[in-house]
Specification:
This protein is α/β, with parallel strands linked by helices. It folds into 2 domains: 143 residues, 3-Layer(aba) Sandwich (Rossmann fold); 67 residues, DNA polymerase, domain 1 (Orthogonal Bundle), CATH 1.10.150. The chain contains 10 helices and 6 strands. A 6-stranded parallel beta sheet has the order 3-2-1-4-5-6, sandwiched between helices. Helix 8 links the parallel strand 4 and strand 5. Helix 1 crosses helix 2 and helix 1 packs across helix 4. The protein is globular and about 50 Å long. It starts with a strand and ends with a helix. This is HAD family hydrolase. Its cofactor is Mg(2+). Belongs to the HAD-like hydrolase superfamily. CbbY/CbbZ/Gph/YieH family. InterPro entries: Beta-PGM-like, HAD-like_sf, HAD-SF_hydro_IA, HAD_sf, PGP-like_dom2.
């Protein structure tokens, strides 16, 4: 099928931020008295909006995080990003090729705009994504697995949902894309392929350059 636009998730897809962010998050939660391993952080929070951390801590520990938890956690994550965030393998190559072939693409992430822009800057990808091609859950008031963010991106770009190809690395991202009526390929760099398939992924890719093959580029 010929797609009119490719929609990329950011964290864990275009930028290799998930190991850093979850190492910081799990460590901070443990420091606050809510023991959380790196594996548990991936399991419970990968691809979720920030409020989900509060929900999980309340459900699991009947605990309440500090009011400034997100701000302090972001400070720690941003500091860790500045020390070593890089683009995912093949990300720049894929974006350059899409530009050269005039195939539109954009980014749609549950993270806020500050997070997205900083990560793209540090990973050296900001020059490949104009501001009007960066979409955040902030824009619609709800994150994945709700389809709102993907539908907003498609509407803004003037593309029918069924003409969009989404690249996602989390089950929630896959669920959101499928709910929006889009084809979605699960990126298996960090996520169990079975979980992406169970969420409804159209197919799986192990490396970003495989996107070009899907598009016959």
């Amino acid at each position: 099928m010929r797609y009119d636009v490719v929609i990329f998730d950011n964290d864990g897809v275009l930028v290799d931020s998930e190991p850093i962010a979850h190492r910081v998050l799990s460590g901070y939660l443990t420091e606050l008295g809510y023991p959380t391993t790196l594996e548990e952080s991936y399991r419970d929070f990968l691809g979720n909006a920030g409020h989900n951390v509060h929900d999980v801590i309340m459900e699991r520990y009947q605990g309440r995080l500090p009011e400034d938890f997100e701000a302090r956690c972001h400070e720690r994550v941003f500091a860790a990003f500045r020390a070593g965030l890089v683009a995912s393998a093949g990300a720049e190559e894929v974006l350059k090729t899409l530009q050269q072939r005039d195939l539109p693409y954009c980014l749609a992430s549950s993270s806020n705009h500050e997070w997205i822009r900083l990560s793209l800057d540090l990973a050296g990808l900001r020059g490949h994504l104009a501001d009007d091609r960066i979409f955040s859950a902030q824009d619609v008031g709800v994150g994945k697995p709700a389809p709102d963010l993907f539908l907003h991106a498609a509407k803004t770009l003037g593309v029918a949902p069924e003409r969009c190809l989404v690249v996602e690395d989390s089950p929630n991202g896959v669920l959101a894309a499928r709910s929006a009526g889009m084809d979605v390929y699960g990126y298996t760099a960090l996520t169990d392929p079975a979980k992406l398939t169970a969420a409804g992924a159209t197919g799986l890719i192990a490396g970003l350059p495989e996107v070009l093959a899907l598009l016959a580029l």
